[in-house]
Specification:
The complex is a heterodimer of chains A (230) and B (224). Chain A has 230 residues and is mainly α. In chain A, 80% of the residues lie in helices and 0% in strands. Chain A has a single domain (2-27, 35-215), classed as Four Helix Bundle (Hemerythrin (Met), subunit A) (Up-down Bundle). The radius of gyration of chain A is 20 Å and the shape is globular. The chains are: A mainly alpha (230), B mainly alpha (224).
């Protein structure tokens, strides 16, 4: 208990401090991108958030496989908590992406493979949370979710392939300048710092959510115990 | 303990008999798909030039949504009549149960589609009996049945199963829908097979993965 509290507190303090630092770096320190202008600064949020979203979904996979294999609730807590955070960060990724697309591409949305795959991925894990909400509590719901957690992960490469091929069948001109080419060293450095910060934020939230989930399950057990007495 | 395929055959035969008596699945799938074809006609008002462009999409929306509707029913009778427990108590492998239920769903969906296709051909003025199109329908429906049977077995034990199954099913089958729509369009235009091959490959990969994964996962889903 004590060590986990120390880890949680430590992560909180470090993440909070680094968040303040990257806010300064993103809005004041880093030079403005020449082609994309000031809107490019959202890149230092968007890319790390996207990375954390995918990281979370790989944790869902690990937790799901672990649960079906070992059937201990720790794996399930990991999978569920990671799924919630994955949906949170993927939602933020979609929003920051849409906000950025409008000034840069001129449209809020294009059915580009990466965007479309992210949207489908988001939908799969929203379905995961819905399945959890509607399933019976306990082992059965956890098993169902684990099955979906694995199926969703296997599906993603197929979704991506199909959309890439679909787009090549119906090509669509990319509007506006494509963000390619070499990143300025200061930009690359900031991207790395920002990614690290958001990964720490994810670690903090995951640790916190898992322990909260454990408490929720304990409450559930206790409620089951006192129910006959009422 | 009987062998694998006799068990499968018994499960399929049981489902066919139940279906012959209730006509639950085929009728509801047919009615729904027919209605959606007609609604699409009003919604899109396809002119003769537009018809070939929208036809594959309309066909697959109708098949997909009607398919979900049919899949929702797959385990409802089993659950309501307590038959699922009976099946689980029999000394048969879960894989055989899965394959039996999957083949049953596949069969009902194919029957409904076989009735729908001529109607679709009349309404959208196309000639549907082309080997390419028929093969796509067969492969895509197999994929629907393969993953749909697994999800249906989960959804039946949830509250509001009518919304849970589509939420699980539709995002996962996106590769099939894309592949089926594009390849059907090519087939209906009389395009060459070489344009369709990669979509066949994609759907085949999906089908194989879905079958293998579902057969493995079915055991975890059915433990009560």
């Amino acid at each position: 208990m004590a060590t986990s509290m120390i880890i949680k507190k430590g992560l909180f303090v470090i993440t909070g401090a680094m968040m303040l630092v990257i806010l300064y770096l993103i809005f004041i320190w880093v030079p403005t991108e020449k082609n994309l202008g000031v809107s490019q600064r959202i890149f230092y949020f968007h890319v790390p958030i996207a990375w954390v979203g995918f990281l979370a979904f790989s944790f869902v996979l690990v937790g799901s496989v672990g649960y079906l294999w070992k059937r201990t609730s720790g794996w399930d807590r990991l999978a569920y908590s990671a799924a919630e955070l994955g949906v949170l960060f993927t939602t933020l990724m979609l929003i920051t992406g849409i906000l950025w697309a409008k000034p840069v591409w001129g449209v809020w949305w294009t059915w580009d493979p990466r965007l479309t795959t992210s949207l489908i991925l988001w939908l799969i894990y929203v379905a995961y949370l819905m399945l959890r909400a509607y399933s019976p509590k306990g082992d059965q719901g956890a098993r169902y979710a684990a099955v979906l957690g694995i199926a969703g992960f296997i599906d993603v490469p197929l979704v991506y392939m199909s959309i890439v091929w679909w787009r090549t069948v119906h090509p669509q001109a990319l509007i506006g300048p494509a963000a390619t080419g070499e990143l300025d060293p200061s930009m690359r450095l900031l991207l790395m710092i920002s990614t690290l910060t958001f990964t720490l934020l994810f670690a903090y939230l995951l640790v916190d959510r898992v322990s909260l989930r454990r408490n929720e399950e304990e409450v559930e057990v206790l409620r089951g115990l006192i129910e006959p007495l009422r | 303990m009987t062998g694998f395929w006799p068990t499968v055959a018994a499960v399929v035969w049981k489902d066919i008999q139940a279906e012959l008596r209730t006509k639950d699945i085929v009728i509801s799938v047919l009615a729904f798909a027919l209605l959606s074809l007609i609604i699409f006609n009003f919604a899109l008002r396809p002119s003769p030039q537009l018809t070939p462009v929208v036809a594959p999409g309309v066909l697959w929306v109708a098949f997909t949504f009607a398919g979900v509707l049919g899949l929702t029913r797959t385990f409802v009778l089993e659950k309501e009549q307590g038959n699922l427990i009976g099946l689980l108590l029999t000394p048969t492998s879960r894989e055989a149960l899965y394959v039996g239920k999957m083949l049953g769903s596949l069969f009902f969906m194919l029957v409904a589609e076989a009735v729908l296709l001529p109607v679709f051909a009349v309404l959208f003025n196309i000639s549907p009996f082309q080997p390419g199109l028929l093969l796509i329908i067969l492969m895509a429906t197999l994929g629907f049945a393969a993953i749909g049977t697994l999800f249906s077995a989960m959804a039946v034990n949830t509250r509001s199963r009518e919304i849970v199954l589509p939420m699980l099913f539709l995002p996962i089958v996106v590769p099939i829908i894309i592949g089926a729509v594009v390849a059907s369009g090519t087939a209906l235009d009389g395009g060459p097979w070489s344009d369709m091959v990669r979509w066949f490959q994609l759907i085949a990969v999906f089908d194989v993965l879905a079958l293998v994964f579902s057969a493995f996962a079915f055991e975890h889903v059915l433990q009560e």
